[in-house]
Amino acid sequence: MNVNEMKPAEPKKIWPQQLIDMKQRGEKIAMLTAYDALMARLLEQAGIDVLLVGDSLGMVLLGYATTLPVTLEDMIHHTRAVSRGARRALIVADMPFLSYQVSVPEAIRNAGRLMQEGANSVKIEGGRHMAETVARLVEVGIPVMGHLGLNPQSVNQTGGFRKQARTKEDARRLIEDAHALEQAGAYSIVLESIPEDLARDVTAELRIPTIGIGAGPDCDGQVLVCYDALGMTGDAAPSFAKRYAQLGAEIIASARRYAEEVREGGFPAQRRAS
Length: 274
Ligand code: KIV
What we know:
eight-stranded parallel barrel, TIM Barrel, alpha/beta, single chain, globular, binds 3-methyl-2-oxobutanoic acid
């Protein structure tokens, strides 16, 4: 027997086109954020399809109040780490604030850096005004995921992290934006914090999959910030984020026990006299 036949089968890599195929087959897409190699490895073992190196890392990991201070270098650092931990999952890297809005050539150069460092795709915020940028990125071989509804990089304009597209006029504009992104070549769109019936309508109208966060159950997939889903962010987690564990409480209790044992001499255990 050839020894290679004894190796476990290599996990099959997920590419952007597969998300479109999943929508056509009616299979839901499971996406979570990951910011480092260890978490990427664990989430991939759990069968997560898409790992988003979100610029939310600025708020969750780096302690900023918004995502605006996150730099391209920050995103490259974390994208590299995630790509070292994951082999099967599709890796999507957020383009940070001002790395794609100034000009199309700058957007291509910056997206290209993220791709060179391990991303399989980039995500950018915004609708029709980003269509030309999306089209050019796709032309040069960079798959793009769009992001509509609450765009955290625009919180100063929208007045905080609140639900979007609540009027008929805003809902109509969001549907037009979604079509503009699809026509420009985006392979998927995140819909963040919009009414459930609007997310359902957008999902029904598009050929490409929608991935919801605070947008109800009818999107083609769902995404959460992994630390929200793991119960590590306490009150900072948005109300729609279901907690699948209480790791924050577990960490505090474990660290407290460790500190007590160190102080009382319980750890390390006493060496037995020989
Ligand atoms: O940065 C991020 O984590 C995101 C998700 C909220 C979709 O963009």
